[in-house]
Write a structure and sequence with these properties.
This protein has helices at 19-22, 27-32, 53-58, 91-101, 129-137, and strands at 5-12, 38-39, 42-45, 63-71, 77-82, 105-107, 109-111, 114-116, 118-127. By secondary structure, the protein is α+β, with helices and mostly antiparallel strands.
């Protein structure tokens, strides 16, 4: 049986934690001092989880899982939370995705010249290449 695959794509959250504070500043002051440009975190160390034999045999279809990671000012992941609803068979894959997400490292987010905490969403997709190929040929 060919190796199951797992892929991860990243979605930058374009809003910073600090943006909420900017919204509380009176409009006149905002015009005098426009909000600084926000640059989301970018990955510098990515990983892709390896699916073990037990999970490999259980993959009957693609399993998409989304994990939001909260990145501190050092670029390390402070917290990872599963955003996707999971069913019984996907619990192990969800745990694998959250565990993997904690090992990513990022260039920290910036708000103007200040380094600020940030967050991104990691989109994990677990599947089996044989199923993907047979689906494409249908």
């Amino acid at each position: 049986m060919p190796e199951p695959f797992s892929t991860v794509t990243i979605e930058a959250n374009t809003e910073s934690h600090a943006r909420g504070l900017v919204g509380k500043i009176p409009p006149l002051l905002r015009r005098l001092h426009p909000a600084p440009e926000y640059e989301p975190p970018t990955p510098v160390h990515e990983s892709t989880p390896v699916v073990d034999d037990h999970l490999r045999r259980s993959l009957k279809s693609e399993v998409p899982l989304d994990v939001r990671v909260y990145i501190n000012r050092s670029g390390k992941v402070d917290y990872a939370e599963l955003l996707s609803d999971i069913t019984g068979g996907s619990r192990d894959l969800a745990a694998l995705a959250v565990f993997d997400a904690r090992h990513w490292e990022f260039t920290p987010a910036r708000l103007g010249t200040r380094i600020v905490p940030g967050r991104v969403i990691l989109h994990y997709r677990f599947g089996n290449p044989v199923l993907a190929i047979s689906r494409d040929q249908e």
